[in-house]
Amino acid sequence: MKKGLFITVEGIEGAGKSTAIQSVSEALNKTGTEHIITREPGGTPLAEDIRHLLLKPRDEEVSSDTELLLMYACRSQLINTVINPALSRGIHVVSDRFNDASFAYQGGGRDISLDFIKLLDKWVLHDLKPQLTLLLDLPVEIGLTRASKRGNKDRIEQETLVFFEKVRTSYLERAANEPDRFVIIDATEPPQKVRKDILSAIETLIKKYS
Ligand code: TMP
Predict the structure, then answer these.
(1) Residue 1 has pLDDT above 90, yes or no
(2) Has residue 1 been placed in a domain?
(3) Range of the domain at 120
(4) How many angstroms does the Cα of residue 97 sit away from the middle of ligand 1?
(5) In this predicted structure, what is the pLDDT of residue 33?
């Protein structure tokens, strides 16, 4: 049986991932193949519990390594119990964030050596790799202003402008290094244009793998 396609959606806070995922879903619905939508950190009952631990604001300082390891603990659970089983059954999987977020946030934002992240990545992902990653890109100030309208900030959302600048730069560097996998979407464009760009990226992907 042909494996499902794995699509991930990335971007800094306020980039519009939720709306983008609706557009991905709309495009996939036209293909007649089943798909599921999941998210990171989270996506399984255990991983959602870890998500809560990760994002809850707390007085205790959270070490960068702890944060990274918890992200990969979530990822391992999601891959083994949700993503891989679905892909093997021919079901497409769309994930709101995946491993690029660890390279961008823990690598770029927290300055953890990319070599350490690559080690974890190899261990936890094995050969799993998204066929398409949509990177919703926009200036940090615009993203954070949009995100601040959503109410209470979680632990990571409370980070500084400089932190998110580093996250954005890391995302863009990864995209530049893997142009075949990444499609950069200009998230400052009007919603209809963003939707059109996403539909077109999914159509291209489906053609490529049909
Ligand atoms: P979300 O609110 O966009 O779902 O993501 C939760 C937060 O987790 C967001 O600030 C990005 C962060 N994150 C990381 O720092 N590293 C990761 O590997 C992932 C998946 C998310």
Answers:
(1) no
(2) no
(3) 6-209
(4) 7
(5) 85
